[in-house]
Amino acid sequence: MPQLVHSIAELQQALASLRETKPGSIGLIPTMGALHQGHLQLVGAASDCDIRVLSIFANPLQFADLGDCDDYRNYPRQLDQDLALLEGSVDLVFAPSVEEMYPQGVPDIWVRSGRMGEILEGASRPGHFDGVVTVVAKLLNLVQPDVAFFGQKDAQQLAIIRRMVEDLNFPVRIVAVPIVRSAEGLAQSSRNARLSAKGKQQALALSQAVEAVRANPGAIDQVRQELAAAPGVSLDYLKLVGEDLLEDSVPALVLCAAWVEGVRLLDAAPLD
Ligand code: PAF
């Protein structure tokens, strides 16, 4: 089992002794737990780092009403299972309580995600990305990694974190880790567990649309029409955006969000 710490003091002690034995690079993999193949891909991407730290913290600030919602209360918490999955692949797991991370309650000072956090996913989840960048900034300050790993499925989160690191001069390299897909192409997500076999089949329309746009960006309007008409799919958006998430910038990413069986699913791909 990897070493598990819950407090900031223990984290700092553990990091200091790891640094003595392995004086190389530190990689951080921030997660909210309930680990799946997608997270293990992040862990695999960190294998070149000398010290690998994985954080598990379901951050209330990034949920509706600062965590006073069913989505946050029902968020799966399965530390023992998560630790078993991490056997041999990380050095340290930091799993703080809410009180440890926010001892004064909701913090007075936040990082703002600004315009990038208000569009796309942010339009249906006001404040979500402010909560994300605030906790990621804290984790970067606490662990002081050389590299931090984030999944490409949450492409908007990744773009906003990259911008925060650039705008606020965090001395860390952000690595984007490709989406893990099922054999048929469905992007790995903890939300897939809420889909029936039929829903999983219908959800393939998202990855097919993203791939079609990636291969031929000029066909996006046609692909969007087909996706909007796909059985069981209720489309929110299929868009080509730049690194800054704007539609009138040089296209860099295909982003897609849709509901299948009432479950909101995301897919994304960088353009070649
Ligand atoms: O992607 C996630 O799991 C979370 O948004 C993150 C980056 C760990 C911040 O809480």
Shape: globular
Distance from N terminus to C terminus (CA atoms, Å) equals 39 Å
CATH second-level architecture of the largest domain? 3-Layer(aba) Sandwich
* Count of separate DSSP helical elements: 11
Radius of gyration: 19 Å
Distinct bound molecules: pantoate
CATH topology of the largest domain, by name, is Rossmann fold
- Please give the domain count: 2
Give start-end ranges of low-pLDDT stretches: none
CATH class of the largest domain: Alpha Beta
> In percent terms, what proportion of residues is strand?
15-25%
| Largest beta-sheet characterization | 6 strands, parallel
As laid out across the biggest beta sheet, the strand order is: 1-4-3-2-5-6
SSE pattern:
EHEHEHHEHHHHEHEHHEEE
Find the CATH superfamily of the largest domain: HUPs
Task: Please estimate the helix content.
Answer: 25-40%
The computed structural class is: alpha/beta
Mean pLDDT: 96
Tell me the number of strands. Answer: 9
How is this structure best summarized?
With about 270 residues, the protein is α/β, with parallel strands linked by helices.
Describe the model.
Catalyzes the condensation of pantoate with beta-alanine in an ATP-dependent reaction via a pantoyl-adenylate intermediate. It catalyses: (R)-pantoate + beta-alanine + ATP = (R)-pantothenate + AMP + diphosphate + H(+). Belongs to the pantothenate synthetase family. The protein is an alpha/beta fold and 272 residues long. The protein has helices spanning 8-21, 37-45, 70-73, 79-86, 98-101, 114-118, 121-124, 128-143, 155-167, 197-215, 220-228; strands spanning 3-5, 26-31, 51-56, 92-94, 147-151, 173-177, 233-241, 253-260, 263-270. A 6-stranded parallel sheet has the order 1-4-3-2-5-6. It folds into 2 domains: 3-177, Rossmann fold, CATH 3.40.50.620; 190-267, 2-Layer Sandwich (Pantoate--beta-alanine Ligase, Chain: A,domain 2). The radius of gyration is 19 Å and the shape is globular. Helix 8 (128-143) packs across helix 9 (155-167) and helix 10 (197-215) packs antiparallel against helix 11. 39% of the residues lie in helices and 19% in strands. It starts with a strand and ends with a strand. The structure holds pantoate (PAF). Residues 30-32, 59, 62, 132, 135-136, 154, 157 line the site of pantoate. Pantoate binds at residues 30-32, 59, 62, 132, 135-136, 154, 157.
